[in-house]
Please model this.
Amino acid sequence: MRKIEDAGIYCASFDRKIANFYPLAKSRCSGKFSCAMRATMVTTKADLIRHQCTGFFVAPVCHGAPVSHETHNILETLHVSCARAEVRRGFTP
Model:
């Protein structure tokens, strides 16, 4: 994954800490083969519940196009890689 096109947390409201998810995903995942992200890397479980957060996503650029990896379990660890995207889409090089 050379680049992270987008990343975010799905919430009814948000604050500065939640808004830091994209910059964190960009710094942890860009240039890596794979990475693991959790919403609790930027804020607490209590804050996620208070803001009614329901999930999150990271969209790396894989083979020239962004591919969204997402979960609707706010406390889950999301494993992100282009290899996982290829398996999901039935990609064969």
About this structure: The first helix runs from residue 16 to 19. The radius of gyration is 13 Å. Confidence is low (pLDDT under 50) at residues 87-93.
